[in-house]
């Protein structure tokens, strides 16, 4: 019996050695990121190019920025790729991340019914838009999910001196969902919402909705990437994770980000220094 076991073991080792490298699973890293990078199609475009160059697969956990940060803090990701600078800086200063790198940017836009019941199309600033929506009690749908988009929305309300939660269940609603679901709700109820431009371009159910305000300086939407600290989580794949970051901020990675378009429109603009 022992002889047979030894023979089977030797055969298994021999056969394992004969398997070509291409037949083995690639090394992989896990990236906690936002829904906008996934839903826009950006990752579907650039990640195969990174894998082809390095042999490293990238498994993406696409959630809101707040949840992505919590997953990285729990050690469930090797790399964090999100879009809320204050939270990113805190992630690093608290020791969860090694260093933040600029990667790219797009912008947020405010969308609403083509009939524009709050009369915001003539507004000069995003704060004026929020004030008009609250004053007219026009329906507004928030993601309400602690995402980067939700954090930006809360910042706009604060800048306008408005607490929308005081009107929760009246004209202000929280979807507690991703961007696509939130836009669907806004479309269905004829409401306003804030969204990143990339998701808006990719969104197919626009009937009755349009961009009502864009271009305000506080609607800029920068993205950063951070390697999770191996001092906090020794299992983090530091070398492979850093390779991914280095590729993203390299001329090649930045060129691929710039080349990604949807309906002929560039969605993200490189910002690596």
Automatic annotation (TrEMBL):
Gene3D superfamilies: Periplasmic binding protein-like II (3.40.190.10). Pfam families: PBP_like_2. Residues 30-252 form the PBP domain. SUPFAM superfamilies: Periplasmic binding protein-like II. Residues 1-25 form the signal peptide. Keywords: Signal. The keyword Nucleotide-binding does not apply. This is Sulfate transporter. It comes from Magnetovibrio blakemorei. The lineage of its organism: Bacteria, Pseudomonadati, Pseudomonadota, Alphaproteobacteria, Rhodospirillales.
